[in-house]
Amino acid sequence: MKIAVGSKNPVKIKAVEYTLQEARIQGSFMSIDAPSNVSEMPFSDEETMQGAINRAEYCLKHMEADVAIGLEGGVMETPFGLFLCNWGALAENGKTTLLAGGARIKLPDEIAVNLRAGEELGPLMDIYSRRENVRSKEGAIGIFTNGMVNRDELFIHIMKLLIGQKGDWFK
Ligand SMILES: O=P(O)(O)OP(=O)(O)OP(=O)(O)OC[C@H]1O[C@@H](n2cnc3c(O)ncnc32)[C@H](O)[C@@H]1O
């Protein structure tokens, strides 16, 4: 089985590889910087889901993959504040695309206010945490949980929710 992931972000690639290995799913693995074709900073569950789907579909179209994974991060507005959200899509030719979402956490008001003003979470998190490339490492969730839940764990959870739905892979 040829498996493609639509990102070059190491935290996403590692989460996909790790989960497939854990589930003893054999296959060759490739990655491509697939466009999400949504805003740089998705601002709803729907837009973030669409980004994940678009990335997976791009992989199917542009690579010789049997299975394609799209992972996308975004934020979503609620009556209780702005929350971090993450979504994953697993696509195969001729089959219904599977979707799964990850854990959410409310963003502090000082971050939310800048996001609502049009800034992107990646650079904001680097400034806030005084670290570099947070989006490819612990992620916002890692910063706001003091490392209790990092971005890799979030994507591993999403991957488990996705591949767990592939009953035929476990026979
Ligand atoms: O290389 P790609 O796959 O694009 O990975 P990414 O982390 O840059 O991109 P996402 O599509 O997952 O997220 C969209 C933007 O939201 C930001 N973002 C999302 N989740 C984040 C997180 O946990 N920590 C920091 N920034 C995040 C970041 O600025 C992204 O450019």
TrEMBL record:
<dbReference type="InterPro" id="IPR050299">
    <property type="entry name" value="YjjX_NTPase"/>
</dbReference>
<dbReference type="GO" id="GO:0046872">
    <property type="term" value="F:metal ion binding"/>
</dbReference>
<dbReference type="InterPro" id="IPR029001">
    <property type="entry name" value="ITPase-like_fam"/>
</dbReference>
<dbReference type="GO" id="GO:0103023">
    <property type="term" value="F:ITPase activity"/>
</dbReference>
<keyword id="KW-0460">Magnesium</keyword>
<feature type="domain" description="Non-canonical purine NTP phosphatase/PRRC1">
    <location>
        <begin position="6"/>
        <end position="157"/>
    </location>
</feature>
<keyword id="KW-0547">Nucleotide-binding</keyword>
<dbReference type="GO" id="GO:0009117">
    <property type="term" value="P:nucleotide metabolic process"/>
</dbReference>
<keyword id="KW-0479">Metal-binding</keyword>
<keyword id="KW-0378">Hydrolase</keyword>
<dbReference type="Pfam" id="PF01931">
    <property type="entry name" value="NTPase_I-T"/>
</dbReference>
<dbReference type="GO" id="GO:0000166">
    <property type="term" value="F:nucleotide binding"/>
</dbReference>
<keyword id="KW-0546">Nucleotide metabolism</keyword>
<protein>
    <recommendedName>
        <fullName>inosine/xanthosine triphosphatase</fullName>
        <ecNumber>3.6.1.73</ecNumber>
    </recommendedName>
</protein>
<dbReference type="InterPro" id="IPR026533">
    <property type="entry name" value="NTPase/PRRC1"/>
</dbReference>
<keyword id="KW-0464">Manganese</keyword>
